[in-house]
Amino acid sequence: MQTFIDxxxxxxxxxxxxxxxxMASPATARRGIVWAGVGMVLATLVTFLTPGLQNIALMIVAxxxxxxxxxxxxxxxxxxxxxxxxxxxxxxxxxxxxxxxxVEFARGEVHGALPTxxxxxxxxxxxxxxxxxxxxxxxxxGIMKRAWRLPAQNMVNAGLAxxxxxxxxxxxxxxxxxxxxxxxxxxxxALGVVLTxxxxxxxxxxxxxxxNAFTGLAVGFEGYVLGIPALIIAGIVVGASGTLLTQLMARxxxxxxxxxxxxxxxxxxxxxxxxxxxxxxxxxxxxAAATMRxxxxxxxxxxxxxxxxxxxxKVQEMAKLLEEAGVDVRFAIHPVAxxxxxxxxxxxxxAGVPYEKIFDLEEINADFPLTxxxxxxxxxxxxxxxxxxDKGSPIYGMPILDADRAAQVIVVKRGKGAGYSGIExxxxxxxxxxxxxxxxxxxxADVVTNLKTMG
Length: 455
Known about the structure:
The protein has 17 helices and six strands. The protein is α/β, with parallel strands linked by helices. Strands 3-2-1-4-5-6 form a six-stranded parallel β-sheet. Helix 5 packs antiparallel against helix 8. The longest helix is centred in the N-terminal third of the chain and has 28 residues. It is globular, with a radius of gyration of 25 Å.
């Protein structure tokens, strides 16, 4: 029986890896999710064949309740709420890993230096991932509306981290007592809250990816402690891919991960070394429609404002009308657009935008000087030119989409205020930029109405 279980876990590992590889492309992502899902079902079923397994009825009840809740939420969650859902799943994974470690320590089932060390690491990382993900969810859901930064924030971070590590070393050296165990988990949970609370703005997608990596590592460590290969493989795959994604996104922002954690963008009003000069010029939906209708090349830059308004279907309808009129329409996606990795790609795919029309920053930036109209919909920091030249700006050095280098720029925006990160956008004040104010859903719907009258 054990041989059959081990062979099944091997098949599960192959399915996880193949699934992850398929998820790298929008064209094969759905197939990858199915393969990984089949692997998870196999891993769950074969675990019930483990000799000596107890509490089977309780496990079935837990699986039915958890699976039922996930199935329902997966069907009803809005695409704009996916970042919050990812934060919840990260937190559940990290919390489960920490809970496994706590139970194993309480039962006295962890023996030996290596298993104890890995159990402590899993408990620490899982606790930080859990409480950090809770804070991320509260921010993304709009329940926690402002960044909370403590006096001497970094000293508090360092102090908490040192205390937790010392307690972890004590547990490895002499075994955990109930008092040490409780203090260890309380401080680890507090560390996750304190680290995540000041972070917001364009840093949030990177933090979600980092918490995802933490959850994977914690699960992998606890899988070793429990002796379950499927947990080790799944955890390491998630941890490694999450770590790579975090590094790629941090590189895309030209911000080291240490800066994101210790000197985050808080979302509060911020200024660079010099104020932005100029005035914003407004145009009507009719003018916007005419400008794009009689252009040759249009590049659309979607941002979180489009997601919040749920305007992706209207945007696709507008793009089709323009293409029917002979206009070359493409979409430009920044690596950290939205509130989680791949957020804009998912929304555009849902609306039916062909994959070949969607381009990454490196693929399309050289084309902006040849573009007649750049239409920016609810995007802000990722098109802010101060990132190129203002060394006093918090986003200095971050690669941006060069929308400002198009012949004309139209920005769809709710109002005249600064964006989520609180940084004033120089693009909005340029001579070649016009502002179309309003909800992205209504503004693009008005453009579509006018396009239809132009034939």
